[in-house]
Amino acid sequence: MSAMSDETPVLDAIRFTPDGLVPAIAQQHDTGEVLMMAWMTRETIAETLQTGHVCYWSRSRGKPWRKGETSGQVQTLKALRVDCDGDTLLLLVNQVGVACHTGRRTCFYREAGDGGALTEILAPEADPEALYGHKAP
Amino acid sequence: MSAMSDETPVLDAIRFTPDGLVPAIAQQHDTGEVLMMAWMTRETIAETLQTGHVCYWSRSRGKPWRKGETSGQVQTLKALRVDCDGDTLLLLVNQVGVACHTGRRTCFYREAGDGGALTEILAPEADPEALYGHKAP
Fold first, then answer.
1. Quick one: which residues bind Mg(2+) (chains A, B) (predicted)?
2. Are B89 and B14 a contacting pair, CB within 8 Å?
3. Is the N or the C terminus of chain B less surrounded, counting Cβ atoms within 10 Å?
4. Cα–Cα distance between A104 and A106 in angstroms, integer?
5. Residue A1, pLDDT above cutoff 50
6. Which of A7, A35, A37, A80 is best to mutate for the B interface (most B CBs within 10 A)?
């Protein structure tokens, strides 16, 4: 893809938080599944546009989070969209395997039912221990 | 739907920010379109579950934002999902008309193209002036 300097118009349209972050929703480009929401910085957006592989910012680890680097469950970028007020991104991706660290296709696997109970609506497809070498929390 | 006290299990599974907020993604339940992202509080989630009409929290106005109250473009709740770490919601909704204050179906109508330019990929379906009685910013 294009060089970093060329990404400036997109990057300048984004309104980052005071911490320099912007939320990014990942959606499977062909099925429409909403896979996850994570955070990006100006630098990880530029890297994502350059490489075509989605790189988030890990708030807990305080460093770039190249999705799938450990697990192999990478996200290839198909399109990057910016919302009307520039404070949220929508990434259309091709998700290899599962998006969720629990081994499920999507992180949104719990649904509110009648009476306010949360029900799991999706089973793991992959063993988190196999993906990461340890059990998911 | 059920009474507020019954919603406690769902509400207790959510990890709110220090400001008491949680991001909520709205997705059209049948087409899979990602319509918008906004913020909710414990109280607006409880109200949404009770009434079946989506109520966000307006950070700019500092009060509940009953989606469509002014414009008529309401969102009926079909399902509420919570992600793996409890810090993001996915609302499956039925969106009447358009979700975006610019008159477009979705807020994500700008896409990054080659060279980093942002291109509008969706035209307005409704006149913002007719929806709100004034031009959208």
1. 83, 85, 87
2. yes
3. C
4. 5
5. no
6. A37
